[in-house]
Amino acid sequence: MSQVLDRIRNGVDSEQMYGTLDALKANPELGIFQFRAHNHWIDGAHNRSKIQAFYGAGQEDTTRNQTFVLDAGEPAILLGADTGANPAEYLLHALAACLTTTLVYVAAARKVRLTEVESTLEGDMDVRGALGISDEVRNGFSRIRVSFKVKGDAPPEKLREVVERAQARSAVFDMVTNGVPVEVGVVTA
Amino acid sequence: MSQVLDRIRNGVDSEQMYGTLDALKANPELGIFQFRAHNHWIDGAHNRSKIQAFYGAGQEDTTRNQTFVLDAGEPAILLGADTGANPAEYLLHALAACLTTTLVYVAAARKVRLTEVESTLEGDMDVRGALGISDEVRNGFSRIRVSFKVKGDAPPEKLREVVERAQARSAVFDMVTNGVPVEVGVVTA
User: Fold this and answer.
1) CA A38, CA A61: separation in Å to the nearest integer?
2) What angle do helix axes A171-178 and B87-109 make, rounded to 10 degrees?
3) Residue A4, pLDDT above cutoff 90
4) Using CB atoms, which residue from A37, A143, A151 is nearest to B121?
5) Which chain A positions have a beta carbon within 8 Å of B57's beta carbon?
């Protein structure tokens, strides 16, 4: 029992984690993943993404047996009907979720047991950019602030180190801070 | 009836849209918005964001009467239990949703009636970066491909123009392609 408890830290199976890392070191091509989303417009600001299939570790995934369905919307003041969080809010969630999971994995690897991880994110936007009224402001957030509250069985400086390492390794933090090349194709028929 | 139909295009009330744009032109400070997300860790790769409050148009919003709850996870091969789409997939959804809504609004403003908007997004990632195994690959997607299928009562070139304009104005497209400054603070007590 205590061996099992030692092995599972922060809900992460450390034996499985080390096994995965070893497999990737031995066979780097297993690291190639492709994630996907399919979106369709419903009405106005209401659209819906379905997410299930992905490629990874040398094959098309067959283990995920459910489709995640995500509805987007806008509040009334941005001409929507609140059919879901808006796209910019989804981006904040993506960032919060990725920093948190990375932090939890890093802590597990460093043998830190966490008891609480919370974060509040704020993104500042002048919507005149996206609405096409002003070219002097950008379309997206001018900045994002993330405030973490982290508790666990380690001294504050160790917990801070874990958060710093999470920033250094988070996939979405990398994308949101550094940007990603995006190609857009259109079929009209 | 036909006046109402003329006014509502693609689920967007064009009279409300022009009213909003006029108000923002007259009072640029109404364009200042702040969007927020609160996230808490549950276990392993499972964490949850709650999204409701935002600031915009000169005041704290009071119209949104529901909290959007978003669960994140990872598939088993990435040490999770599929408790939700993963953070990188949420980013794809944010991008799809923003491009789509922007496209729908642009079409409404240009008097194009859309009948179908679908998109497929693919993001390529070598997970050795985020897992800390390799410094030679980045943590996030190396690239994202977006494939739109758009139909409506306009010639193909007009529909393509609408998609191009959506790219030029989408908040999340701007953020994902250009990056955003992100500040991270930590409280450990």
Assistant:
1) 16
2) 40
3) no
4) A37
5) 77
